[in-house]
Write a structure and sequence with these properties.
This protein has 17 helices and seven strands. With 435 residues, it is mostly helical.
């Protein structure tokens, strides 16, 4: 038997191991991964992605799991996955637990070693904090550069601190708070509907005035060609559509299948991200369970608005490399399907339109879409090629080029007429001499 904490179950679903293709001996006891099996079976990339995240962590994170080896698939399936499943169960079953209460529950079940030693307790809290981030994909822990007195999350946006990650660290004293209140200390990872965090006066005006958006006027192609914006791909769904104005970078979440899986899991209550919702129906700064479900649907729909419904954006997407430098097994096929195909897969359960009402269709991503649209409106074409590509106002675009074409033809005909007149004049001047 592998060394490690006692108290795990008795069997593991073969489908949950498909992404690892393990051949464990028939006499080896396999551990139950419970509710986590849904994510592992529906998301072929997710198990290996989890393992890659573990490899980025210091050994001190696993002091509460003696003998744990993140490089071993056997340890992963017999220790780590069951532990994730238990944390997922606690998040579901308890009413907005805290990191401290989750650690206490795991310790009572003998799932971790905590005891009275400070390093074990600190390791357990750090591990629970990390697993919560990985199960929700709202953040990734940064345990390497984090001081012992703080919880830290990775800088996903290269120094830009948007509304989702306003702060990259907070005191460990926050571990006693409920998960929604604790995560709010980092930023608005799960915003409520139609929340306005903007402080810029111009952005506030745009927020109030912009009611609808269309794929023909707000899309990836226009943002990159006219807006001068580049694309960075992120593993955190909370950073989706964040815009760094100074660096002119828009951040896009690269795992839409995680959203799809958690939309389905909302029916069974299996998704950890749903358990991080606010328990108060009147929360002004954090989304409720209904808000979480709507946010996941909006993220899926945003790929269609931003890329899938515009032919030039689809062509541009096919030239991008969302998983550059990453293993093939951690790539999300749904990203390519939802962004590259003209027609929408009906099984996703979202409805695309030619025009979207922000307050109705994107109440949680509204601020970010307004910010992207404002940035695009502030940018003007600077060359003839950009003028040709910029057809946001189709009437003005057609009028402009009609004037250019008709005027050009008129000038050409006038020029030809002048040439003929010159030739005729020369002929007349030469005619008397010939006589």
């Amino acid at each position: 038997m592998l060394p490690g904490p006692p108290g795990y179950g008795s069997s593991v679903s073969p489908s949950a191991l498909c992404c690892f293709k393990l051949e464990l001996g028939p006499k080896r006891a396999r551990k139950s991964i419970g509710a986590l099996s849904g994510l592992l079976s529906n998301l072929p990339w997710y198990g290996r992605w989890l393992q890659e995240q573990l490899r980025l962590q210091p050994s001190s994170m696993f002091e509460c799991l003696p003998g744990f080896d993140c490089e071993s698939d056997e340890y992963l399936t017999e220790i780590f996955f069951p532990l994730c499943s238990k944390i997922l169960g606690i998040l579901k079953d308890q009413d907005a637990p805290s990191i401290d209460s989750i650690v206490e529950s795991l310790w009572k079940e003998d799932s971790i070693i905590a005891g009275d030693k400070h390093q074990y307790l600190a390791s357990a809290a750090t591990l629970v904090f990390g697993i919560t981030g990985w199960l929700t994909m709202l953040y990734r822990p940064d345990s390497l550069s984090c001081p012992p007195s703080e919880f830290c999350i990775m800088d996903e946006m290269d120094g830009h601190q948007g509304e989702s990650h306003m702060s990259l660290k907070q005191s460990r004293m926050g571990s006693s708070k409920r998960i929604p209140e604790f995560l709010l200390g980092f930023g608005l990872m799960l915003p409520p509907a139609n929340f306005r965090p903007v402080v810029d006066v111009e952005e506030l005006k745009s927020y109030d005035s912009l009611q609808t958006v269309e794929p023909s006027t707000l899309n990836l192609f226009l943002l990159t060609t006219i807006g001068g914006v580049s694309v960075e791909w992120t593993d955190c769904l909370s950073c989706h559509l964040e815009l760094d104005k100074n660096a002119r970078i828009v951040y896009l979440y690269r795992y839409p299948s995680f959203c799809e899986a958690n939309i389905r899991n909302d029916v069974t209550g299996a998704g950890a991200i749903h358990a991080c919702a606010s328990v108060s129906p009147n929360s002004h700064y954090w989304g409720t369970r209904r808000d979480v479900l709507q946010l996941l649907e909006e993220i899926l729909l945003s790929y269609r608005l931003f890329i899938g419904q515009n032919i030039r954006s689809r062509r541009l997407f096919r030239k991008l490399s969302p998983f550059q430098g990453m293993s093939f097994i951690v790539r999300d096929d749904l990203l390519f399907k939802i962004c590259s195909n003209k027609d929408l897969n009906a099984s996703l359960g979202i409805t695309q339109r030619n025009s979207y009402e922000l307050a109705k269709d994107f109440p949680h991503l509204r601020t970010r879409l307004v910010r992207l649209n404002s940035h695009l409106n502030q940018r003007k074409p600077r060359s003839w090629s950009e003028l040709w590509l910029d057809n946001r106002d189709s009437a003005s675009w057609l009028t402009f080029w009609a004037v250019i074409v008709i005027g050009g033809i008129g000038l050409f005909l006038a020029f030809v007429q002048v040439i003929f007149q010159i030739v005729q004049l020369v002929y007349q001047l030469q005619a008397p001499d010939s006589q």
